[in-house]
Amino acid sequence: MKSPDRHGQTASPDPHALPPPTAEEQAHGARLQQRLREDIAARGGSISFARFMELALYAPGLGYYAAGKHKFGAPGDFITAPELGALFARCLARPCRSILAQLGRGDILETGAGSGALAADLLLELETLGRLPERYLILELSNELRDRQAETLRLKAPHLLEHIHWLDALPVDFRGVMLANELLDAIPAERFRITQNGVRQLHVAWQNDRFCWQENPADEAIRRRIESLALPPGYTSEINLQAEAWVRSAADILKQGVMLLVDYGFPRAEFYHPQRSDGTLMCHYRHRAHDDPLTLVGLQDITAHVDFTAIAEAGTGTGTGLSLLGYTSQAAFLIGCGLEQLMSASDPEDIRAHLGLTQQVKKLTSPHEMGELYKVIALGRGIQEPFPGFAAHDRRGRL
Q: What residues make up the domain containing 50?
């Protein structure tokens, strides 16, 4: 079974059919390739796939998210929900308003804010609803993306800039709403393969002038987790221990409020479905999806779908103590947040604006687009449930 891409389409089976990179892109890719080769040599001839993914995406000045390549929207490589228009943020404002109202006062913390579109549209809608946060905090490590976010906010919501603060790390403690849209899928994951000799961890090596896969003995933590799944020989997939660690770190500083995570993925039983035997790894380059992360290094996004069962366990486990407040599809969540009411308030006589909203609704909610593949999970502390988004179609029982 081929994994669908961000919009539910099947990945291209041939990465060599992708548009050729420009000369400037080739030069950039060569610099990152050299950086990776040096790391491979320094670590004895191979690196874990998580390390490869980390450098390919985040190596300072060279990685996909750390360099200046345009990533989001029509000129980039993929489109996220906030880039489609303001409708996603306007729906998200309803649960944010409800949570901030319960707290009386609080902040919003967005991790990985992309172009800044979600921050701008969310603040504008919360202003309309009369429930602005005390501060809107953005945790962003990329200076290039910080500059782009600041420019977006200056253009769309200049009068609200006083609410915005950029962070280099999670705060010591936090009260309010923690948001992450398409963050977990970009956290470096490990890749494994089941063989007749047990679980093997896939590393990346450099041979014959190219990157290639290499099977190594699996780390103990990976071996234990994967053996419990009883997968058949030949099965290849991912496990993201770093994403689970991120959730635990965020839970540690959440004194009161909600962690609201939106991403594409499945409960564990579906993530490791017998037919998903090639895993969920996906790359995006100029709006084409394919499954070879060892090509176009630094020029393409690399993602792995989210095991939402693992995320729920990380947030609610011993030492974290969050409550699982909701889990559902993006379509059900947005409808529960007033999507239909926002659409009905649109003036059909304004054909251009109404058509734009209709197109956003289709992308956000269609089962063949983002509606079913994307999920929303809420983990919280000291918050009453339900709040907007989960009341009608809560799927916690599937985790």
A: 22-391
Q: What is the mean pLDDT of the segment spanning 384-399?
A: 89
Residue 185 counted as domain residue = yes
Return the residue matching tokens 């308003």.
97
Question: Residue 315 sits in a domain of what CATH number?
Answer: 3.40.50.12710
Q: What's the structural domain count of the chain?
A: 1
| Band (8; pLDDT cuts 50, 70, 90) | very low
Domain assignment of residue 6, yes or no: no
Radius of gyration of the chain (CA): 21
CA distance 377 to 389: 10
Rounded-to-integer distance, Cα 103 and Cα 50, Å: 38
Whether residue 5 is predicted with pLDDT greater than 70 in this model: the reply is: no
pLDDT, average across residues 356-364: 91
397 lies in some domain:
no
The predicted model scores a pTM of 0.93
Q: Is residue 62 part of a domain?
A: yes
Residue that is written with structure tokens 């609803």 in the block: 129
| Whole-angstrom distance, CA of residue 63 vs CA of residue 56 | 5
C-alpha distance from residue 301 to each of 85, 108, 219 (Å)? 22, 27, 26
